[in-house]
Amino acid sequence: MIDIQKFEITELPFGERRTNNKPNTELYAYLGEEGIRKIVNHHYDLLVESEINGIFPPKGELLDGAKKRSADFFIQRLGGPEYYKITRGNPMLANRHLPFKITPKARMVWLECYRIVLSKLENVPEDLVLDYWRWLDEFSNWMVNQHDKPKFKLNISINK
Ligand code: HEM
Count of domains in the chain? Predict the structure, then answer.
């Protein structure tokens, strides 16, 4: 267990793509493929109960497919087998998220669900988990593709 307060969520400006520090792949030695699949399954189970559940597939086969694709990516990213590359090709994740409305608020919810899962990990060195978290915190901003509210409102009235 890790104190959840240690997983800080950074507010980042819309469109900011910080140079993406790569996660420390030593984490893979502790989690293994199965550990990563467990994390992703738990994360998605929280997402489909969250206020952004509308953009995720409902429970069942479609959700299982989404869990698999995501876990394949994280396994590869942490230095495990390249399942994602083989089945999906280049990640290009910002592009793959374009069909979904991802606002700064949605990123917050996504990260909040993720930190719940990570805070429950046991027998994994805390610094490795927090290093992984910092990568997620920054990289998640790459997926934000819409504002929560329009920045300004057009106030036009047409009088004939
Ligand atoms: C910022 C908040 C995020 C939201 C709201 C979000 C939402 C989504 C949604 C709706 C999907 C499609 C699910 C489906 O397959 O039906 C998806 C897919 C995926 N997401 Fe995210 N995502 C976020 C951040 C991230 C981050 C930070 C990563 C990686 C570090 C990531 C990795 C993936 C991957 C690998 C897929 C599968 C892509 C594929 O189909 O090949 N997502 N995400």
Answer: 1
- 70 touches ligand 1 (CB under 6 Å): yes
Q: What is the pTM of this model?
A: 0.93
Nearest to 47 by CA among 139, 135, 116: 116
Query: What residue's CA is closest to ligand 1, atom 25?
Result: 140
- Mean pLDDT for back-to-back runs of 10 residues, the chain (160 residues): 97 91 94 98 98 97 98 98 98 98 98 98 97 97 92 76
Q: Is the CB of 4 under 6 A from ligand 1?
A: no
Question: CATH number of the domain that 64 lies in?
Answer: 1.10.490.10
CA distances from 151 to 14, 85, 100, 147, 154 (A): 12, 38, 20, 8, 10
Q: Is 105 in the pocket of ligand 1 (CB under 6 A)?
A: no
Atom of ligand 1 nearest to the CA of 110: 2
- Residue span of the structural domain in which 40 resides: 23-143
- How far, in Å, is the centroid of ligand 1 from the Cα of 121? 22
Residue 18 counted as domain residue: no
